Amino acid sequence: MDLPLGQALVREGVITQSQLDLALEIQKYRNNDYLGEILRYTGVSQHKINEALDYLNKRKKIGEVLIDLGLISPENLQCALKEQKIIHSRLGVKRPLCILLLNKGLIKYEDYMRALSKHFVLQIVSVEKRRIHPSLQDVLGKKYVCEHHALVLENDGIIIKIALGEPTFSLMQEIRRSIPSHLEVIFYLAHPLEIESVQKKIFAPYSLHNYR
């Protein structure tokens, strides 16, 4: 679809024209924010935004996001993409683009998280100091949250909030399918090392004593 994202979202019934007008007005003062991020700030469903971005093929690639943020140059990106192709042809392994950029010292992990945040329309949160009861993880299961760097932050029976350390669209879809349909799922982005640290605390023997 050749329409700009906002008009495409209105046409598809994801948002109203008044919601688009408000988001565009806000965007004038938040030059570094994408329209999808602003719509999320204004209360539009994160899930609907992400579904629409993929359906309409409007999601920016990580490399493009990094360029928009001024973290790498187009030349840096082309060089990394070329190296990625060479590694794939020689070893049959597709090395993640951001790992290559990290290894080259062109970006920091915090930069990668900023790009992921914008790519998937996820708010970045810190989980290190949160008090999270182990029972919250029951909705996904200990093995699942540990394998996928996931952490259930809150669940009030209406909205369930989940932090991901290594988000992918397929992972978010898989989690949504496993959650009872009456619950609205909101995803966040957290540093995977922070998630691992919290998981070790809540799943450690006698960790329940910390929450009494």
Shape: globular
- Through-space gap between termini: 54 Å
Secondary-structure class: alpha/beta
Quaternary structure: single chain
CATH class of the largest domain: Alpha Beta
Strand order of the largest sheet: 1-4-3-2
Tell me what you see in this structure.
- The protein is an alpha/beta fold and 212 residues long.
- The protein folds into three domains: 5-59; 62-118, no CATH class; 123-211, GMP Synthetase, Chain A, domain 3 (2-Layer Sandwich).
- It is 50% helix and 9% strand.
- It is built from eleven helices and four strands; from the N terminus they run H-H-H-H-H-H-H-H-E-H-E-E-H-E-H.
- A four-stranded mixed β-sheet has the order 1-4-3-2.
- It is globular.
- It starts with a helix and ends in a 9-residue tail after the last helix.
- 26% of the residues are buried.
- Residues 208-212 have low confidence and may be disordered.
In short:
This protein has helices spanning 5-11, 17-27, 35-41, 46-55, 62-68, 74-91, 97-103, 109-120, 142-147, 169-178, 192-203; strands at residues 123-124, 150-155, 159-164, 184-189. It is an alpha/beta fold and 212 residues long.
What keyword list fits this structure?
single chain; 212 residues; alpha/beta; GMP Synthetase, Chain A, domain 3; 3 domains; 4-stranded mixed β-sheet; 4 strands
